[in-house]
Structure prediction request, 138 residues.
Amino acid sequence: MERTLSIIKPDGVSHGLIGEVIRRFEKSNIKIVGMKLLKMTKTEAEGFYMVHKERPFFDSLTDFMSSGPVVVMVLEGEYVIDKNRRLMGATNPEEADEGTIRKDFATEIEKNVVHGSDSPETASVEIAYFFNRFEIVG
Ligand code: ATP
Ligand code: MG
Prediction:
């Protein structure tokens, strides 16, 4: 059994996609074991995306991620890290497969609706960034 961190990004929340994203998780038998709505500060967004610190889009990305509320979730299930990444689709919506969240709803490479951890190591760091153990109901 794996866990992963999902974020519905500010564009997903402002475009009214919270229910749609959660519906796709539930339809795929992915269990939600933690969930909250919050607004990151610029500093919190920089900490979260620290791996991208040297990338040219870092400042714009962290402005965007701190621009409005996000929904952070802990998802649980077999192979859920990969399963979530497949539901999300490629980073660039133009390259995302049909039927993925990003293909269906993302407006550009930065504003791509959802985040998902990409490995067990990043999942555990990212989950701990937002949730303490009392906030995860396993
Ligand atoms: P995420 O980490 O958000 O799940 P990802 O793993 O598919 O997305 P990363 O390479 O980790 O993609 O990039 C993190 C985020 O940075 C992307 O989701 C996107 O919002 C933004 N991003 C990535 N590449 C670019 C780019 N070339 N221009 C602008 N923004 C970008
Ligand atoms: Mg990533």
